[in-house]
Write the structure tokens for this entry.
Amino acid sequence: MKQDTLAAVDLGSNSFHLQIGRVVDDQIYLLDNLRDSIRLGAGLTRDRRIDQSTQARALEALARFGERLRGFPRAAVRAVGTSALRTAKNSKAFLSEAEATLVFHRGDFRP
């Protein structure tokens, strides 16, 4: 199904971004843009794990993003992670918690 409103969540090494746009005649027009400075890369410990305080900031940002995305169909949203998430040894556990925090649509959720 073709979506007329799309959203992208960028889990960057310095900041997290949420961009929402409307598709009109194969063009995307920006409707909303949220940014939160998380500094995920700076939150990596010596043993390449994301520290607890950085994880807490990240999850708070994702909860805010999830509120803004409430009612969006899953097919209209994409999330991507960058370098810090590929480097972190605990990224799998963090991403599992992040996905649960970002739940945005009504109805059942099957990650």
About this structure: Confidence is low (pLDDT under 50) at residues 106-111. The first strand starts at residue 5 and ends at 11. DSSP finds three helices and four strands in the chain. The CA atoms of residues 14 and 82 lie 10 Å apart.
